[in-house]
């Protein structure tokens, strides 16, 4: 695809332990369009997070290759948001959000403006001097998201960022991320177990099989942009969720064989 921002070709990942090996992923082929919000769903243990880490360069593939197309010399290519927040407990909220900018040696005047903007945008301005231990789970995840957006990455990789939140807070964070993304339309790869979340946020939903994870289906999400959480109430939303669930269920192995 000429407009692919991410191209995955024949990627596999094998983990070795105690003289044996387990194929966790692939082979898998994947293209992500520039400015696309791609959601990936699949059974537990199917390799979704492994795939994301390979794309991020945190893991090397056992076979195949990943190509990321850069269009800027200044903006970092990727930034990752994990489920477990991955923020530094000994740094204040402000210092956590500024961390990636410090690593990139962004000038102080630019850094201060970006940090201030993202603290305000994610409702963290009043907590700039607070430490993570004093914050709720939802607030800590806001810090993680603010840090990822502050570096203005070309590709944002999100690994089940709302999985640890309660249902109500999760919906609030979904709506906030939807609004944030629709303002700049950067390329996003988003891992989730939640089909409702995938349809609300995504332009496309990719379904993976049980381990070793492979692509077994893809669904274009037909709802126009900008969209709001109100689309959940439509019959079309429920119908699409049912179709994806049917395909996901058929891709699963018997429960006793699925890795936790």
UniProtKB/TrEMBL annotation:
Keywords: ATP-binding, Nucleotide-binding, Transport. It holds the Pfam family ABC_tran. One of its GO terms (molecular function) is ATP binding. Residues 8-235 form the ABC transporter domain. The keyword Cytoplasm does not apply. PROSITE patterns: ABC_TRANSPORTER_1, ABC_TRANSPORTER_2. CDD domains: ABC_NrtD_SsuB_transporters. This is ABC transporter ATP-binding protein. It comes from Streptosporangium amethystogenes subsp. fukuiense.
């Amino acid at each position: 695809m000429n407009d692919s921002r991410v191209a995955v070709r024949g990627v596999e990942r094998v983990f070795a332990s105690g003289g044996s090996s387990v194929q966790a992923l692939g082979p898998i082929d994947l293209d992500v369009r520039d400015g696309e919000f791609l959601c990936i769903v699949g059974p537990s243990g199917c390799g979704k997070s492994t795939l994301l880490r390979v794309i991020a360069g945190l893991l090397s593939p056992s076979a195949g290759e990943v190509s990321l197309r850069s269009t800027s010399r200044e903006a970092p290519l990727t930034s990752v948001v994990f489920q477990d927040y991955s923020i530094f407990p000994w740094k204040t909220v402000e210092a956590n959000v500024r961390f990636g900018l410090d690593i990139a040696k962004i000038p102080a005047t630019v850094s201060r403006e970006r940090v201030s903007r993202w603290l305000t945008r994610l409702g963290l301005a009043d907590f700039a001097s607070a430490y993570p231990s004093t914050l709720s789970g939802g607030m800590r995840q806001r810090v993680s998201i603010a840090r990822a957006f502050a570096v203005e990455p070309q590709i944002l990789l999100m690994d089940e960022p709302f999985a640890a939140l309660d249902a109500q807070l999760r919906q609030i964070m979904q709506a906030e991320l939807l609004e944030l993304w629709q303002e700049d339309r950067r390329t996003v790869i988003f891992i989730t177990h939640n089909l409702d979340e995938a349809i609300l946020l995504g332009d496309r939903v990719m379904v993976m099989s049980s381990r070793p994870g492979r692509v077994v289906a893809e669904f274009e999400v037909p709802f126009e942009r900008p969209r709001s959480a109100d689309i959940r109430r439509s019959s079309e939303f429920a119908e699409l969720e049912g179709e994806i669930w049917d395909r996901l269920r058929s891709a699963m192995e018997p429960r006793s064989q699925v890795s936790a």
